[in-house]
Amino acid sequence: MLLVAALGLAACSSGTATAGPGSTTAGSGGGTGDGAVETLTIYSGRNENLVGPILEELGRVTGAEVEVRYAESSELAAQLLEEGEATDADLFFSQDAGALGALANAGRFEVLPADVLERVAPSFRDAAGRWVATSARARVLAFDPAHAPEVAGFTGIDQILDERFRGKIGYAPTNASFHSFVTALRVHRGEDGAREWLERFAALDPQAYGNNNAVLDAVNAGQVSVGLINHYYWYERVAEQGADAVAARIRFLDSDDPGALVNVAGVGVLAGTDAPDAAVAAVAHLLSDGVQQYFADETAEYPVVDGVTTALHDLAPLGEGLAIDLNQLESLAQTLALLDEVGLT
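Now predict its structure.
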């Protein structure tokens, strides 16, 4: 059982598109009534190596010329907020719910059509219908069964706050997924509760690594006993090397625990877009069975459309759990300030 969130909120603007730095052009199709080819501009916080093939399909699917700008989700969200109604973007494809929440809470998204929203369960879409998840990922504990077999029975994140794990916990302090976990901790337990947890965590001398893969490497090599990561890093490693070659195991915590946060990648149509039909068609394509299958197979992420599964990864089922409005994950500045206060940056 995992922490699945109830999602929720709001709306921006757009215009005709010119590709900025980091942009690519992908395909074209039909045109507008006057014979001009419509342009669909996408700001993508998802990595080009991962989603490039999918976004290239959108020219055929939408009949528009597709232009994509790639950057970090938080960077693109900040740019869209700055650009306001002058933006050329029509669609925002985010790696993280926090960036979607920043735009939603600023009133930057159009409400999506009901037939698009109904492709996914309510737990994977904004409560007001202004953005929708395209895939999901869960926080888990990676652990070394030779040195910390008890982690296989853990149900909550508080259980790692034990003296026996001093110097033996790995985490990635600069990683966005760790920041999202801490933000969820703040939303769930309040500022004082989150600070208390983080102070106890910091007192155990956790080992800092550059990213989730490095944390998993450290657990796998026995350098640390427990690591805080996203689920798909382990599944990808097993798919690449085989289960027998991966010493580390993972533990999904109970669904009512913030250590089991399920975050999402998602997409929203910017208010005032000049290509509303193409933008909505693009969102629908990202929720198609084929694209959902791609995410499930290629990245071991959780599909958000019922009936799509993967035979390549033995994914643990997602369960209903504590409702958190993922739009609240936008409060990154407060999270970073708290992490700096407790010495975990």
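The mean pLDDT is 88.
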